[in-house]
Amino acid sequence: MFIKTTHFANGNVYKKLTMPQGDDETQKFIQKLTNTLETEVNSTIKKIAAQRNIPQDAADLLMSHHTNLPTARVMLKTHKYSIEEIRNLNPDSMKTRPIVSGCNSPFHKALWFVCHILSPLMNQVPTHLKNTHDFLERMRSLSPNDLKNLKFFTADVEALYTNINVHTAIEDVLEFAKENKSFINTYGLHLSDIQVLLETTLGKSYFVYNNQVYLQLLGLFMGTNPAPILATVKMWKLERASVYVDLRITLPTYSRFYDDLNGTTSNSRKAQQLCNLIEQQDPDKLIKLTLDYPSSSEEYIPFLNTEVRIDNEGQIHSRLFRKPQKKPLTLHYYSHHTTRTKIATAESMYKTAEVVSSDPNNQQHSSKMVDTLLLNNGYPNRVIEAIKDKRKRRRKRHKTPTSSDNTAILKLPFINEATSRKFRDAVKHSGLPVKIVEKPGRRLKDLLTDSRPLDKAKCSSKNCRTCSSLSLDNGDCKSRNTIYKITCTLDNCSETYGGETYRPLHHRFDEHYRSAANPTAKSYVDKPLAKHYREKHPNYNGKPQLKLEIVDRGNSLIDRKIKEAKFLVQNKPSLNDKSELNNLTQFLVA
Fold first, then answer.
1. Residues whose CB is less than 8 angstroms from the CB of residue 429 and which lie 6 or more positions away in sequence, other chains included
2. Less Cβ around it within 10 Å: N or C end of the chain?
3. Residue 408 is inside which H or E element, if any?
4. H-only helix segments in 241-298
């Protein structure tokens, strides 16, 4: 099913920029805008660093280079529809959630830093819930007398991130930061500097969808770093001026998990009054709440992954909850993961079912939900029963917790159970404080699907030397985090060089190309390709004849270095010198 661009047609929220005609011109337009935003944020960071005497090397860590505009994708809210309804849905009318990925955007590093500074503020918001366990702990701390003749209700803030005025949200979070300054570390910055960074980054919310650039005029990207903090503090300001002030409303308990709030009142009129009071505190009149109130004391009301009711005597009843429309999927028994991982996943589900359930009857209800889910995902009955028995035995023993402060994590690819056992036995016998974490291999989903099919970075040059040197089915000049091989094809030479880069491939290849094209230049005298052309092709004055191939990809520096070292040891490319090989072998595990 194709998601049309009509989902970004609301002119009050999104501005559609006028784009040039043609793919090449479109890519140039996007690149120019990206470079402008990159320059602006880097200039802001340099200015702040100079004013606050921040060391240059620290400021450099926040600088943006080789970035892309944020990319949007649209997720269908499948929990709002049955499977039959989804099959017959009109793409223009379906309920969706726009997600904007800011990974490697011009503002990514700056926003990460601001988020790191402001995140401790979340712990200072009295109504904020960390998770389900925090919610149940608050509820269970109340006595039945406090809850007698009350009902549990929930309310949902409609499109919270989109319906926030960014400028007032920035003011609110800075005011809250000033009140709680002792809880945050600003690393030498002033709150005014954080304000400048937020205004510079959040005030220019450009993104790409289907090669069309949009500017979000209202609200925050769902997916950008500080959005949850700004949204949480914004809601707390509204609550502080209503829930905790208005004497018409007295609640034994009230809390919120981002855009889902809950409380207890004696009737639906008071619950609706509470929602109205919160809405009225928003100066922009954008915040809207949808109430979910039980019709009787026997009705459960969902909240997060639980459902709760309060009986007439004030006793709380809670149990596990899954949305009826949610697909019955979890880690499949025949998936490419270790058996330990599958067992641990199932054990965690039973543990959650037990913790959220208030009594044996509800625990049995929750446990049956987990049974059904596991059976639907290939877990045999004997395995399920074995997991339950193991949990029963474990409850009878009191295991002394062990400290893991000095334990190192060793990530290894999962191959098969026999190999995993050898790894674990070797670590156990060595006595080293190492914990092995095994990562599954590539899945069919990774090979056959793409979460961003419409917004691939495209080369904007018709005469790109990297694209012409690279085979078409082996990636493109915009590829990042690659391990590559360069082969000299001049006069059937076939000597090779191997390397790695996190940058777009064309940046690194251009450097190699220029060194081969100017082998006698002083700045390239020690470069491997310059040395090769100077010694092997001294009389050649034409364009370098180079073939480029991506041999592998990595997701981090250490991952790329390990794969580069593996490639060099196995293939022994003739243009890599021995010192380079020796330096890289430290990344290989003997």
1. none
2. C
3. strand 408-413
4. 268-280
Record the tokens describing residue 544, joined without a space: 């370098």
Rounded to whole angstroms, the Cα distance separating 37 from 69 reads 9
For residues 349 and 339, give the distance between their C-alpha atoms in angstroms, rounded to a whole number: 16
Beta-carbon count within 10 A of 505 CB: 22
CA 417 to chain centre: 30
Distance, C-alpha 382 to centroid of its chain: 36
Measured in degrees and rounded to the nearest 5, phi and psi for residue 305 equal -105, 25
Q: Rounded to 5 degrees, what angle do the CA atoms 293, 298, 299 make?
A: 40
Nearest 10 degrees: Cα torsion 157, 159, 162, 168:
-10
Tens of pLDDT, residues 550-590: 999 888 888 888 888 889 888 989 998 866 666 666 655 54
| Each residue's pLDDT tens digit, 126-170 | 999 999 999 999 999 999 999 999 999 999 999 899 899 999 999
SS3 149: coil
b/e burial code for range 79-118 (CB count within 10 A of at least 16 → b): eebeeeeeeeeeeeebeeebebbbebbbbbbbbebbbebb
